[in-house]
Automatic annotation (TrEMBL):
The UniProt record lists the keyword Nucleotide-binding: no
Keyword annotations: DNA integration, DNA recombination, DNA-binding
Alphabetical list of Pfam families matching this protein: Phage_integrase
Molecular function as annotated in GO: DNA binding
Residue ranges of domain Tyr recombinase in the record: 150-361
Statement: the UniProt record of this protein carries the keyword Acetylation: no
The name this protein goes by in its record: Tyrosine-type recombinase/integrase
InterPro entries: CB, DNA_brk_join_enz, Integrase-like_cat_sf, Integrase_catalytic, Integrase_recombinase_N, Phage_Integrase-like_Recomb
Every Core-binding (CB) domain range: 26-122
One GO BP: DNA integration
Length: 361
């Protein structure tokens, strides 16, 4: 039987299979005949976390790596004391834009990145050391740190009308159509900006009195379970007509719903979606998408910030998440119960709504 030396358990799997306290059974050598099957399964690790999370983790780990290099420390694997020192440095960092210290959530994200890259490399994560855990627990209870203490304010009917009035001032009809569809769909459906960017034309169903939007995946639905949003046409600022008008004027029939426009705003840019493998190994596969012609989550974020600024709504307090927050708050103002709101936004725990619900006037 053919054997493959680069696929020996002692060489390729020793880190990933036996990195923890438990040891798993290993074949002495594996046959070349299963190599393609193994690589096919390993390629699924690309979808283990979202592309956005992967990007944030790379950025966070590069900050940690820079700190370690600066002080002659090893970043992978890292000593728990190096991680604690990194926390000490980061918690005192003052952000130039806001003048406040990094939040606990930001520090938690950076530790999550350290943990992720250690596990991927087959090392025990230093972030799980008891002293690191104690430091982070104490940090969460430290009320003397100067951090940002506000959330994005909800965009409700009054603010939504202000934004739509600003959009109406744009000279190009196709730009007006697209941006109104984004704003109204984001608000009525309580979508996250990443969800708005991923909506495909095939996800839409125009029924007699409602727009039905399918979400194959979302932050709270990462296993691809069936999830729909029913958006009544009778609600104020319904997205039904706005989305239909955008599809008619743009002549988009398939693919991503929200597309990039030319610089003058007169036409839809060329659209293409392709995927190209950039690196692979027996244990881990990563790919890079070569896509163009459609909006991404950051594009939608910047667009909403621009319109908020023009409408006189401070972009310091309003952003893309204000549409989702406004959806929850407005439905609450309209006397909808928690189950109705959760069905609209996709929340799975009623306690999550407490973060959004504001007292009624």
């Amino acid at each position: 039987m053919n054997k493959m030396s680069p696929f020996k358990a002692s060489e390729q799997l020793s880190h990933s299979v036996n990195s923890g306290e438990k040891r798993f059974f290993e074949e002495t050598e594996l046959p070349i005949s299963i190599l393609d099957d193994y690589k096919s399964a390993a390629s699924e690790t690309e979808y283990e976390i979202s592309e956005n999370t992967r990007r944030v983790y790379r950025s966070s780990f590069s900050i940690f790596t820079y700190y370690c290099n600066e002080h002659g420390l090893n970043s992978l694997p890292a000593d728990p004391r190096s991680v604690i020192s990194f926390i000490g440095h980061q918690k005192e960092t003052i952000q130039a834009r806001t003048g406040v210290q990094l939040s606990r959530q930001t520090l938690t994200t950076r530790l999550a990145a350290i943990r992720y890259f250690h596990i991927q490399a087959g090392f025990h994560s230093p972030t799980e050391h008891p002293l690191v855990i104690r430091v982070m627990r104490g940090l969460s209870r430290n009320k003397y740190r100067t951090v940002s203490d506000y959330d994005q304010q909800p965009i409700m009917y009054d603010e939504l009308e202000m934004l739509l009035n600003v959009i109406d001032q744009h000279p190009q009809e196709i730009t007006r159509a697209r941006d109104k569809a984004i704003i109204q769909l984001g608000f009525q459906g309580g979508f996250r900006r990443s969800e708005l960017a991923e909506i495909q034309v095939s996800h839409l169903s125009f029924l007699r009195n409602k727009l039905k939007v399918r979400l194959p995946y979302s932050k709270s639905n990462q296993q691809g379970q069936r999830e729909w949003k029913d958006l009544p046409q009778t609600e104020p600022f319904s997205a039904f007509d706005a989305v239909k008008h955008w599809l008619a004027i743009s002549k988009i029939q398939q693919g991503h719903l929200f597309r990039s426009l030319s610089r003058d705003g007169r036409q839809v840019r060329t659209y293409s979606v392709a995927k190209m493998k950039t690196s692979s190994s027996a244990d881990f596969v990563t790919t890079e998408s070569r896509n163009s012609g459609f909006l991404r989550g950051d594009d939608i974020y910047q667009m909403i910030r621009k319109y908020c600024s023009k409408a006189g709504l401070s972009h310091e307090f309003y952003g893309a998440h204000s549409l989702r927050s406004g959806c929850v708050t407005q439905l609450h103002e309209n006397d909808k119960d928690h189950l109705y709101i959760m069905a609209r936004t996709g929340h799975t725990d009623p306690r999550s709504l407490k973060h959004y619900l504001k007292p009624k006037d």
